[in-house]
Amino acid sequence: MTADDRFAEDFRQTPDDEPVGIRSPVITGPVTDWTTDFSHVEPEWAADPYPIQDDLRQRCPIAHTDRFGGAWLPTRYEDVSAIAYDTDHFSSRSIILSNFRPPRELAPIGGSPPISSDPPFHHHARKLLLPAFTKAAVAKQEAGTRRFCHSLIDALAGAHVVDAARDYAQHIPVRVIADLLGFPPDDGPQFREFVEDLLEGINLPPDERIARVSRLFDYLLAQVDDHLGNPREDLTSYLIDAELYGRKLDPSHVVGTMALLLIAGIDTTWSAIGASLWHLARTPGDRRRLVADPGLLLTAVEEFLRAYAPVTMARLVKDDMNWHGVDMKADDWVLLSFPAANRDPAQFDRAGEVIIDRQVNRHAAFGLGIHRCLGSHLARMELRVALQAWLERIPEFTLEDPSAVTWSTGQIRGPRTLPLHIH
Amino acid sequence: MKVQIDPVRCQGHGRCYDLAPGLFGDDDEGYGMVLGDGTVPPGKEHDARLAALNCPERAIELLEEV
Questions:
Q1: Do the Cβ atoms of A360 and B50 come within 8 Å?
Q2: To the nearest whole angstrom, how far is the Cα of A159 from the nearest Cα of chain B?
Q3: Least CB-CB distance to B11: which of A136, A361, A372?
Q4: Could you tell me which residues come within 8 angstroms of residue B46 by beta carbon, excluding any fewer than 6 positions away?
Q5: CATH number of this structure's domain B2-63, picked from the four choices 3.30.70.20, 2.115.10.20, 3.40.50.620, 3.40.50.1220
Q6: Using the beta-carbon criterion (under 8 Å), do B54 and A362 form an inter-chain contact?
Q7: Closest Cβ opposite residue B54 in set A133, A360, A372
Q8: A184 vs B: CB within 8 A
Q9: Are B14 and A136 inside 8 Å of each other by CB?
Q10: C-beta of residue A356 within 8 angstroms of C-beta of residue A300
Q11: What residues does each domain of chain A span?
Q12: Residue B14: its chain A contacts at CB < 8 A?
């Protein structure tokens, strides 16, 4: 093997004359008016965003805030889908809203391709990854995932109260993603810190945020080094060897994509599994129906994804424009709330109810358009297998203390503490 | 009845080949494909409608024979 010197120097060093992006003041504190001052990182939103979204959809379907340097929040399915499809006017160069906007020159690649990429680069970067995430490819992980779920449940034996978010849901995607990328499975606790740093730390001072993101990239570069010396059949070695436009990928592309797969694969699925168990713990009718008729799981999984969609993405407005009646400015953020779209009564019958045998469910939990979640087949498999294993082994459970349940803050929503009483 | 997929709209969500595996399959990148010439065998019309109604991208067209 010839030496691969792409990773020899730290690609994060940027020359002094490069554009550095825009920083905005950090504004926190209670929201005064959700139509003009919304914030998806305040406790009221984290605890229960749906009444807020339903209210906004009726009286101010595209809400605004001056926080984060200016952001918009559409809540109608029609508007969310229109923005998801409109890559001419909305850029993905940053998809996590914060008080820092990366420079426009970062497009069309972005920091973590392909999720951060715009056309035409996006298509090529995504094509490299699609074969690894087809339904057939992820089916190979199903048996191992099921065994792992059962081993987690074995470890709960004898307990009457368990934290299903901490002791069950979170471990499943951590294991699956570590396997895919070829990272040590015992590094799971570190992954959780990386996820929190990136997704929940958005109102930290920018320098603190940069320092935290740096820790993730240090870890990923160490994994690249390990794979350079010891290549194997996993996505890290695949990315190191992959070629685009006739040459190997830039080191920042390799590591940015690794960061994406690590972060996007964990928090999201953990949230979906946790929210589904939370629903079943407080809805004994649905729980008993699923236990009695496991065939319902396929429609139930889709309904949990609709009603408790964990993921909200962000876009940046490319240029000043009037869009559907509001004056958007260049570099305004847009929160693309798939959860709000999924509860729009104009799109779904009985949108606010959870109907586990819903037959027609054209939900947008995995996004719409060219950025459809790359890992959707993997996430569906993990969610189905995790719920199947839990219901087989622990058919009777309730919330130990509804007020003790805590939810993550920010664009990914799911329970982070979920104490369940096992009967 | 026949089914068609609009390849420009399809993003590979895979609802069609999940819900109607006898009518749809996927390619190496996970995009939906119509199996055969898309003719829906008798008794499979419900599956075809379910696949079309659940496609998030509205990429599936049903051609009803008169």
A1: yes
A2: 37
A3: A372
A4: none
A5: 3.30.70.20
A6: yes
A7: A360
A8: no
A9: no
A10: yes
A11: 5-422
A12: 135, 376-377
- Eight-class DSSP state of B53: H
Arithmetic mean of pLDDT, A385-397? 98
Give the pLDDT band of residue A192 (cuts 50, 70, 90): confident
Q: Which residues of A touch B7 (CB under 8 A)?
A: none
Verify whether the Cβ–Cβ distance A364 to B56 is below 8 Å: yes
Q: Which residue has the tokens 């973590």?
A: A112
Q: How far apart are CA A368 and CA A82, in angstroms?
A: 9
| Domain A5-422: top CATH class | mainly alpha
Average pLDDT, whole number, for chain A? 95
Residue A2 has pLDDT above 70, yes or no: no
Delimit the domains of chain B by residue range: 2-63
Size of interface A-B (CB pairs under 8 A): 51
In sign, the C-alpha dihedral spanning A335, B30, A244, A86 is negative
At residue A140, φ and ψ (nearest 5 deg) are -65, -20
What pTM, to 2 d.p., does this model score?
0.96
